[in-house]
Design brief:
The protein has about 100 residues and is mainly alpha-helical. It is built from 4 helices and no strands.
């Protein structure tokens, strides 16, 4: 393959990663309401904040050009937070799946 094909592939991958990052950022900001809810266990709130710190920290399980570990940890924390909200007597406070 020549250089143009690799450039197009790299551009498509970069755009896809940017879209995933934007969606994840929106979901993190949407989780603010859950973090303020007194019914959510402290363990789930702490797990979320630990995941955020891990995401922005320079220490990684997989080197930084690949953000799969960061995104995975943050998604697991968001899922845990939404699951905790779903176990509340009033049900889930946020719309949409975790």
């Amino acid at each position: 393959m020549d250089g143009t094909v690799w450039l197009v592939v790299a551009a498509v991958v970069a755009v896809a990663l940017a879209i995933v990052a934007a969606v994840l950022l929106v979901r993190v900001f949407a989780a603010r309401r859950l973090l303020l809810d007194a019914g959510i266990p402290l363990r789930d709130k702490t797990l979320f904040w630990v995941a955020v710190v891990y995401t922005v920290s320079p220490v990684d399980l997989i080197p930084d050009p690949v953000y799969l570990d960061d995104i995975g940890v943050l998604l697991l924390a968001l899922r845990s937070l939404h699951a905790a909200a779903g176990r509340l007597p009033g049900g889930a406070k946020e719309s949409g799946p975790a």
